[in-house]
Structures are given as C-alpha cells and as structure tokens.
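Format notes (please read before filing issues)

Several people have asked whether sequences and structure tokens are stored in separate files. They are not. Every record keeps both together, in the order shown below: the sequence lines, then the token lines. Line labels are part of the format and must not be stripped during preprocessing.
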Amino acid sequence: MSDVRRSETLTGSLEVAFPEFRTPPAEPLGLLSAWLKTATEQGVREPRALALATADARGRTSSRILAVNQVTDRGIVFITHAGSQKGRELAANPWASGVLYWRETSQQITVAGPVRQLPRAAAEELWAARAVFTHPMSSVSLQSEPLRDLDHLAEIRARALQLGEPPRALPCPDTFVAFVLEPDAVEFWANGTDRLHERLRYDRTDSGWDTTRLQP
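Then the structure lines:
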C-alpha cells in the first residue's frame, strides 16, 4: 500500500532546505533570487517559467506562461509586445499575479502587485540580450492579432525566414516592451511530510515588509 502521507515529487525529496522559514530575511526579492539559483543548480526544468495572470478593465482574467527575464531590487522583469493580450490588459489594469511552480523540488513562489512599464532603453537592452534567432519572428508577428487563414501563417513564416538571412541582430521593434511586477505580496511554499507545508508570506508596508508564517 502506498504511503498516503507522501506527496508526489520527481526528486524523491519531500523536504527541501528552507532555513528562511525559521529566520526570514528582511525582504523577499533576495530570497526569490536565491530560490531561482538553487532550482537551476538542482536541474529544475524551466525554473523561470512564470504563470502570469492579468485582468482586463472589467476584471476578466487571463493567464499564460512566460519567462522571467530578471529579478531586480524592484521586482520581476518580463518582456512582451504592447499589442499582446497581456500588454493590452496591463495597459487597462496594471496589476498582475504569478506563480513559479517547480515539480522537481515541490516548491512554489506566488507574487502579486502593480506592474510598471520600464523605459525604452530597458526594453532595447533585453531585446539585444535575446538569441538572434528569436528576432525575425518577434519582428514580423503581431502577437495575439487574428490570423486571416492558414496561408497568412505561412506568409508570416516566409517573411521571418527571409528577414533572418543572414542571421544577425535586428532592431528592437517599437511594440517590444519590458515590464516589472513590483510585488506587494510574495509567498514561498515548500512541501513537507504529513502535509506540514512550510509557507512564508511577505506583505509590503510603508516601512518595508511584514513576514507571516501561514498554516499548511
């Protein structure tokens, strides 16, 4: 008979080291960076894959997976096109929440807070840091706009292939934007035996951060 007290994990390790649960750092972004670094070292697949939820002006939510480009002292930086669904929704309702979930180590981080568009120079710097092979499609595709038909998709592909020869860095499109999610709340969650999960929550205040340990 299986041990029903054990949660599923790919590594076989239920209780990852989480000393900060007992001695929380003063702020969460350094801990978030440390968890990302450790997840990468432990072989977590796509540790920077963030499930980001946004909402339109009527409060109707949408979500998608995107890559975290940077974690700075301001928050979580990501890129997109201004005309994408998330770009349009953030223009109308500049607030988002997100989850980083790592099945391999049975950990997750949730974040929520206002989202600010970064200056054009930041978007251009992040564009330049992208692999050159991503430039053509990001230049020709109007992300999230409707396709006329399947031939239209073939046209976009042909234009991207033509633009990508010879392989080279392309100019940053005007629609390419960078955002930073400046969290008002962050929760670190680590799995445990007998479902005694360790949960550490940070809430932003006028003077810094409050920390709270939450029941499983």
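For reference, the curators noted about this record: The first strand starts at residue 49 and ends at 55. The mean pLDDT is 94.
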